[in-house]
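Section 3.1: Structural characterization of target chains.
Under the original work plan, the team committed to producing a structural model for every single-chain target entering the pipeline before any wet-lab resources were allocated. The record below documents one such target. The sequence was received from the expression subgroup and is listed exactly as submitted; it comprises 328 residues.
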Amino acid sequence: MSNVVLKNVSKAYDKNVVINNINLEIKDKEFVVLVGASGCGKSTILRMIAGLEDITTGEILIGDKKVNDIPPKDRDIAFVFQSYALYPHMTVRENIAFGLKMRKVDKKIIEQKVQEAAEILDLTEYLDRKPKQLSGGQRQRVALGRAIVRNPKVFLMDEPLSNLDAKLRVQMRSEIKKLHEKLQTTFIYVTHDQTEALTMGDRIVVLDKGIIQQVDKPEEIYNNPANTFVAGFIGSPQMNFIEGKDLGLDENILYGVRPEKMICGGQIKKTVDVEITELLGSEKIAYFNIGSRKCSAKLTSDYNFDKTLEISIREEDLYKFDKNGMRV
């Protein structure tokens, strides 16, 4: 079993609390994504699971075994960093094999594991090259290969795609998902990119200021956000938030509506002055204000309008939040 459990875990540096009493259970073979803005604590959680950061209070269990006082090398985890952390003077083969050599694993077993990892990651023809001869995507696959050969209970990945260009990121997202399906082990993945979170995770953990805001499947996070933070963070462009008084509705409620639901033939109508329009291939985004709130509408590229736009929202497309930002 390679489940991971965090029980009442906190982390503080002096009086600065960066992780605030979180509880989280990650199931065996699950792919869980921790997502949030920079500084929300997601990488700190990953490093505490790995044993690279001490916890201030609480317990961490890996495979039902408490690991608070167990050093990183004995936790049966593999960590893939944002920087590839490859040895430039070593070949791909030597980089992948390095951890096993340090553990004095038999040479024949090392070679077998390296070959297996190279085949899984399509690196066989690059085994004798040095990292400088590889593309960014190939280097990241080498870093993954070094983790695979250890056959760990848990893979921890800290923003592994952030150094890649947009096209490679899309490709590597798919490759990491396929890798998870092949290996059938637990993956915990950290990113600030909500698109990565939505497309990769079996479940998503949304964090803000060291506190878990919501844990659920991607479609539930998107369709049923627990509060305004989750609603505004997940989705691109982000959800519009509009004061009730500006829609002729309940003044005690803050209303949310997705940009793609702003013009849907509903009874809630308003004419707005468009400030700017962005063309995104088959879609375009119109930006405008409703009251004091900045809003946007996602439209098809052939939707014609001049400098004004009539929005028409259906009541069933509205999300309702109280003054504390909680869903009602």
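The first strand starts at residue 4 and ends at 13.
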